[in-house]
Amino acid sequence: MLSKKIILPVFMVSLFFTGLILLNAQQAVAADPNLSIGSRGNAVVEVQQALNAKGYWCGNADGIFGSKTHSAVITFQRDAGLGVDGIVGPQTQKALGLHSSSPASVPSRGTRTISLVATGYCPCAKCNYPYGGQPSYLGYPLKKGIVAVDPQVIPMGSRLYIEGYGSAIAADQGNAIKGNRIDLCFSTHQEALNWGIRTVRVTVY
C-alpha cells in the first residue's frame, strides 16, 4: 500500500515536468522563423510554392524541407545575391515574397471578376504532353480544382471561383494559356472533353 502511495505522486510530478519540457520546445520552434532541412509544415509548403513559381523547382510542395528544397534555396540565394546557407530566414523569405501576415499561396487580397475563355484538361499524358506525370507548376498534384492561367492576368497561387466549375487555385501554366484564357483540370479525359470551350466568369480572391 505504501509503495502505491509513493509511485502515484512521483508519476504525476514526472508527467508535469514532461509537459513543461514539451511546451518550451514548441514555443522555441514557434519563435524560430528560420526553416532548414528537417523543417515541416505549412510554412515549408509556402516556401516550396514560391520557389517553384520563380522557376527554382524543388518537387511537390509537400511541406517537407528535404534535399531538393535545400538545393533550390541555395540556388535562389546565390542568384538573389543573398548569403548562401540553405536556410530560409527573414531575408530569404522577403526575397521570395513571403510574409507572415500574407501567405504566398493567396497573393490577391481583394476580389475581382473577369470573363475568361475556359477549356478543360486532365492528368493524362495526352493533355500534359510533354510533361506527363509531373505535378502542376506550383507543385500540386493535378486534380479537379487545379487550373492553368496566364500569370500576367491572374497571379499564380490565387484562389478562384469559376462559374460552372467551382472553387480552384491558379497553380498551373500552359503554352496555349495566354491572355484571357484558363484551363480547368478535370478528373477524367472524358469530363474535360465534355466541358468543351466556354466563356465563364471567374472571381479572383
CATH class (first level) name of the largest domain: Mainly Beta
Our count of domains comes out at: 2
Shape: elongated
Q: Give me the Rg, rounded.
A: 23 Å
CATH evolutionary superfamily of the largest domain = RlpA-like domain
* Quantity of strands, as a count: 6
Query: In the CATH classification, which architecture of the largest domain applies?
Result: Beta Barrel
The largest pleated sheet is described as: 6 strands, mixed, barrel
Structural class: alpha/beta
The CATH topology annotation of the largest domain reads as Barwin-like endoglucanases
Catalogue the unreliable spans: 20-32, 100-109
Distance between the termini: 66 Å
- Strand percentage, roughly? 15-25%
Briefly characterize the structure:
The N and C termini lie far apart (66 Å). The protein has helices at residues 2-31, 42-53, 67-80, 90-95, 189-195; strands at 112-121, 146-149, 159-162, 166-172, 181-185, 198-204.
Describe this protein's structure.
The chain has 205 residues and is of the alpha/beta class. It folds into 2 domains: 42-95, PGBD-like superfamily/PGBD (Muramoyl-pentapeptide Carboxypeptidase, domain 1), CATH 1.10.101.10; 112-204, RlpA-like domain (Barwin-like endoglucanases), CATH 2.40.40.10. 34% of the residues lie in helices and 18% in strands. It contains 5 helices and 6 strands, in the order H-H-H-H-E-E-E-E-E-H-E. It has helices at 2-31, 42-53, 67-80, 90-95, 189-195, and strands spanning 112-121, 146-149, 159-162, 166-172, 181-185, 198-204. Strand 3 (159-162) and strand 4 (166-172) form a beta hairpin. It is elongated and about 50 Å long. The relative contact order is 0.13. Mean pLDDT is 80; it is low at 20-32 and 100-109.
